[in-house]
Structures are given as C-alpha cells and as structure tokens.
Design brief:
Blueprint: H1 6-12, H2 20-27, H3 35-42, H4 47-52, H5 59-65, E1 72-76, H6 84-89, E2 96-100, H7 107-138, H8 144-158, E3 163-168, H9 172-175, E4 188-193, E5 197-198, H10 201-207, E6 213-218, E7 224-225, E8 247-251, E9 253-254, H11 257-264, E10 272-278, H12 296-306, E11 312-317, H13 324-332, E12 344-348, H14 354-361, E13 369-373, E14 378-379, H15 385-390, E15 398-407, E16 443-449, H16 459-472, E17 478-483, E18 487-489, E19 492-494, E20 517-520, H17 531-534, H18 544-555, H19 558-575, H20 598-606, H21 613-623, E21 636-639, H22 649-657
Parallel strand pairs: 1-2, 2-3, 3-4, 4-6, 5-7, 6-8, 7-9, 8-10, 10-11, 12-13, 13-15, 14-15, 15-16, 16-17, 17-20, 20-21
Antiparallel strand pairs: 18-19
Helix pairs in contact: 7-8
Length: 658
C-alpha cells in the first residue's frame, strides 16, 4: 500500500503540542459559523447591500438571504413608454415594482398590459408551486442538489410581488381591484395619486393580508376617498384576525373615523401611524358633498386605550388646526414612550412656530427625525423657527420638509448674493445666517426661496446651496432639493429653476461621499444640458472630450474670477472681514441666543469661498484627477421631473442630454 503524500499526512496528523491558548483558538467556532447568529445579523442589513455583496460571498449566505433579496423594476410612463415591454418581460420574479403613469391616453393601455402579465405570472406561479411539491415528493435523497437548483430557479423567476408603488394620474378605484388576487404576497403598498378617486380599504386588506406598510396619499389639490365600512361586520371587528401592519400613513384622504378606529383595533404590531392633512370635503367640490367630521379627543383616547407600541405618531386635519392643548396631547400623551427616548416628531405647519418650539424645548434635545407637512409650498420668513432649530439641534439626523421654502440668505454667511453689498432701503426684517449644528444629518428634504432683490435661478444662489450643504452636512445619504413655486424679481413673478450648469456649482455635491439618493426639482422644466455638465457623475465614464471641454469652460472664467475678487474687496470694504455684524441692513446678524460650537469654527474655515466661482474651479481641478470617484453609493437620482423615479446616474444623464 502506497504511503500518503506529505500534504495528506499533515491533515491526518493530530494537533501538535502547543499552548492551550492556540488549541482553544483553533477549536472555538467563529460566531459567523452559527446560523442563528448570522441570520440575526443579516436581518439588519439593507436590501441593496444584500444584493450587491452578501449573497455573492458563498452558497450558505445566498440561501440564508434568498427570501430577503428583492429585485426591483421601474416603469416611467413620462419619459419612454416604449420600455414597457422590457419591464413586463422582466416582471416574473421581481419583488418590487414602481409604476409611474404617463399623462397621455396610452396610460390605460399600459395598465391593461400590466394586468394581463400579472395574471399570467400569478397562474404560472401557482402551477410551479404545485409542480415543485410533486417533484420534491417523487425525488430521492440523492437528488438533493438538483432539487436545490430547481427551487432556486423558481424562486428567482416565479416569486410574487412583495412591494408595489404607483404614482400619477390613475383611477385607482377601478384599476387596483382586478389585480388584487395577484398581490396576495404584498407586504408594502405606496400610492401617490394625482386624481380624485375612491379606494375600498376593506377589499384591499382582505386581498393582501400580509401587508406591513401602507402609504396612501393624494397629491396637490386632489382628494382620495376611503369610504366605510372597511370590514363587513363593524361590531365584530375584534374577532377579525390581527393584521401584520407595522406602518400606516394616510395623507390628504377623506375617511370615516369609525372605520379607522376599527382598523387600529386589529393592528397590535403597529409602530408608525401618521394621518396627515385629513380632508373634511373634497376641495374641488366643497359645496356638493357632506362634510366629514373628526373628533380629535375621541380618536386620541381610542389610540391610548389600544396600548400600541407606537414610535411615531401624527394627526392633523386640513382645515382644522390643532389647539394648543391638542398639540401637547398628540406630542406627549398618545405615544407611550419616555420623553427622553422619543426622537421622531412630525407637525402640520409651514414653519416651526413658537408654540411647537416651546413644546420641543420641554423634552431633552434628542430629536433625531423631524417632519414638517403642509398643503402647498410656503416661504419661510427671515425670522424662521426652522432656521433657529437647525442652528441649535446637534442630534438631528433626518429632516423632511419638502414644502417649506427656506431662505437662501440664511446660508449666505459672507453676504455674497447680488444686491446685498449696499444697505437696504427702509426697515427690513433681519436675516441672520448661521451654521447648522446638525452636521450628522443623513436625510434632508427641503425647498428654498430668495428675497425680492435676489434671483433664485442665479449661479450664486445655486453655489450657496450646493456649497453649504456639502460642507455643513457631509454625512448626507438622502438629499432632495426643491424650489418655491414662484419668486418676485423687479416686481415681476418668475418660476425659479436652480442653475445646474457648471457655473452653478452642482459638482460641489460630489463632496458628499455617502450619498445614496439625490433629487433636485419637482417638475419637468426644460434645461439645456451639455454632456460635460453632468458626466462627471459617472465614475471613469466621462470621456476625454468632456474633460477637455470642462477645462476650456473653466479657462474662460478668468474675467469672472477677477470681477469676483473685486466684488469681494468691495464687500470687505463695506462690512469688514467679520462675518457677523450689526448695521442698518439687518443682515448677517448671528442667530439670537445661539453660540457656535468648536466644530463650527472648522466648518467656517472650509466655507471661506462659499458662493464664489473659485470654489467651483477648485472642485473641477480635483475632479480632473485620475483617481477621482463620485458618489460610490449613489443608487437613485432624479433631476427636474415629476415624481421620484430614481434612475441610475448613467440613465438619468442619458435622459437629460438625449
């Protein structure tokens, strides 16, 4: 018998006599080898990381996460409806579908095709499940690997939809019921509708018992009716099987309060409840329909009696502001959390009022999430409560206020906006710029506006916004920037659009290394982009010609840079080097009662060129380096369009320059 090779003999030999510590180290299993521990770790990982990294590590990690991985599809009827066939072909096995309806008459035909494909996929899925069980029963144990491969293929091609998002002008009351039988596995539903329509909630809840997240809203001035009863036997609603709902958000809807209360009685797992701007009447027909009445006190009492483990709660009525006592009750009595441990707050207001700020000051400053809702875009005053709050809240991580128009002048630390170098005529309300303390901000949805003597569409305004956010909030992951619907300049109203060309400093946002989602603008507005204006966003794909064109454009800025230095000298001559001063202009005074922390001094140094064209020039030179990489984590970007379609950067660039 031949002797074993040295390599095999070494594997067979017992462990050599070494220290006990070495033996223990070689025999103690890693925590990652314990499936229960590994599965618990994966439960905290987001879907993008699972898809891009985790499932590619090994077969075990793939099998442990195959039920978590969701493949998403997007159909945008606004831009290119010709891609519908491609989307429908890839629909089998997709876990998420985002459907943005177009404005033309073909939208109904598109939906009919979707309904047909969903029905066919649903029938095929049921048949494949039946064949799978028969195959497993008839196969022997020696065929386990073949069975695994077969099951894997079916999971990847036949899995039903789990998440559905529908945005746009669609009659959801007529379009959704026919496909409900195909949505039995749905766990998340989001509807953003720009049409007056009706939805039967009871029908939806019965057809989709696995729903965990429901977000339904009517956009603009529209109304969504949710008539009751939502359950066939209201008096026996407690006998209904408890639902799995974790989050319920209803915005600009009209509903019977008793049906909502019945629903909450069978949602013991609910963690998030937001009822935003509930409608009493349809705004389009206020005189033709009876008004729905809401009893705020009774609803608050009902929610308290259910003893729900809510972490986020909001209740507001469009034409019935909460009283001071009702506001305090909503803030402190409905959610059963200690005041110091609640970090999420939401309010129906265009700006933070003194009453809201006083109430927030009654709890420890641990606010991490702040949401501000209002019906239409509202411009903040110079003495903005939101501005004060941002300059005093170091723990804030998420701010969503898409309809609150924040003054660009609050960002102008060095008073560089055009027309601001000379004293203003007449008594003007003071604008007091400041540096936000929330420098760990990860989510920012905010609109901007400017005062009468400064055009919001100017390159200087854009450089102020992009430069300020990129320096003060370097941890941003989700950024949405909007503009007010109209501005006044020289006694004329104009529709503002942020300057997104090279001179406007859009590239300054490339400093945000962790950015994942970016949206700028909220409606389709024609902007003449050139490829060199945008292709810097795509790492290693911007051509040599685009680089050379950018260098040429920057080289033509020489006269502008010289003029900029003259304006800077005039500013210093007029107001001195100090950023904050107290003169008759009422501009650039520090926010009263606030002191800057140590980090603000460092940020102020980085902002020395804020709003200047030279800041863009320096960024361009950095981008021209071969090792420059922009937004490694960016997954979705949307520039000046209705709805957050969320295309990849290269797709959005192609849409804008084609």
């Amino acid at each position: 018998m031949t002797s074993a090779t040295p390599q095999l003999q070494k594997l067979r030999d017992p462990i050599p006599s070494t220290s006990r510590a070495t033996v223990a180290a070689t025999t103690t299993p890693s925590p990652l080898q314990i499936p229960e521990v590994l599965d618990h770790i994966f439960s905290y990982v987001d879907n993008h990381s699972l898809c891009q990294s985790a499932i590619l590590v090994c077969r075990q990690w793939f099998w442990m996460n195959r039920h978590r991985v969701i493949r998403g599809l997007i159909f945008d009827g606004h831009s290119d409806p010709r891609k519908l066939n491609k989307v429908l072909t890839r629909l089998p096995g997709a876990g998420r579908l985002c459907w943005f309806t177009g404005r033309d008459v073909s939208r109904d035909a598109h939906w009919a095709q979707l309904r047909k494909v969903l029905k066919r996929n649903h029938d095929q899925f049921l048949q494949s499940q039946l064949r799978q069980y028969q195959h497993v029963d008839q196969s022997s144990s020696s065929d386990e690997e073949l069975q695994e491969d077969s099951i894997t293929r079916r999971l990847l091609t036949d899995a039903p939809l789990r998440e559905l998002e529908i945005v746009g002008d669609i009659d959801i009351g007529a379009s959704l019921p026919p496909i409900l039988p195909c949505l039995y596995a749905l766990t998340r539903l989001q509807l953003e509708l720009s049409r007056d329509t009706t939805l039967q909630m009871g029908q939806l809840l019965r057809a989709c018992p696995l729903l965990k997240d429901i977000h339904i809203s009517a956009l603009s001035t529209h109304c969504l009716e949710l008539p009751g009863p939502w359950f066939p036997f209201v008096k026996e609603s407690r006998k209904q099987r408890p639902l799995r709902l974790l989050s319920l958000i209803l915005e600009r809807v009209r509903l019977p309060q008793y049906s909502l209360e019945d629903l909450l009685s069978i949602t013991p797992r609910l963690r998030e409840l937001k009822l935003i701007g509930l409608l009493k009447v349809n705004p389009a027909h206020p005189q033709h329909e009876p008004s729905v009445q809401y009893d705020v006190a009774r609803f608050f009492q009902h929610v308290r009696s259910l003893d729900l483990s809510l972490r986020s709660f909001h209740f507001s009525i469009r034409d019935q502001p909460l009283t001071t006592s009702e506001l305090r009750e909503m803030m402190f009595d409905v959610v059963r959390l200690p005041a110091g441990s609640r970090g999420e707050w939401a309010f129906w207001t265009p700006d933070l009022t003194p009453t809201i700020i006083r109430n927030l000051n009654d709890v420890p400053n641990v606010v991490t999430t702040l949401e501000i809702f209002c019906e239409t875009m509202v411009n903040c005053n110079p003495d903005s409560g939101l501005h004060r709050y941002l300059c005093a809240s170091p723990h804030l991580m998420h701010l969503r206020a898409p309809k609150t128009a924040y003054l660009v002048e609050h960002l102008d630390l060095h008073q560089r906006l055009r027309g601001r170098y000379l004293p203003a005529a007449g008594p003007a309300q003071s604008v007091r710029p400041g540096i936000w303390k929330c420098r760990n901000l990860q989510t920012l949805h905010l609109a901007f506006h400017s005062r009468r003597d400064s055009t919001l569409s100017s390159p200087t305004n854009a450089r102020l916004i992009f430069g300020y956010l990129s320096r003060v909030c370097p941890q941003l992951r989700d950024l949405a920037i909007f503009t007010t619907e109209s501005c006044m300049l020289n006694n004329r109203i104009y529709v503002p659009v942020l300057h997104m060309r090279l001179q406007g400093g859009f590239c300054l946002l490339a400093r945000l290394k962790w950015l994942e989602r970016l949206r700028i603008g909220s409606s389709d507005r024609l902007i003449a982009y050139k490829s060199w204006d945008l292709k810097w966003m795509v790492t290693n794909k911007h051509s040599f010609m685009d680089r050379r064109q950018r260098r040429k454009i920057v080289g033509e800025w020489e006269e502008l840079l010289i003029e900029e230095e003259k304006q800077e000298a005039l500013r210093i001559q007029t107001h001195g080097q100090s950023t904050f001063h107290d003169d008759n202009t009422g501009i650039n005074k520090p926010v009263a009662g606030l002191t800057e922390d140590e980090g603000a001094a460092e940020v102020r140094k980085e902002l020395k060129d804020l709003g200047k064209l030279v800041d863009v020039k320096v960024m361009m030179e950095e981008m021209d380096s071969d090792d420059f990489q922009c937004w490694r984590s960016l997954r979705k970007i949307s520039l000046n369009r209705d709805g957050e379609v969320g295309l990849r950067p290269e797709q959005e660039i192609q849409r804008l320059i084609s």
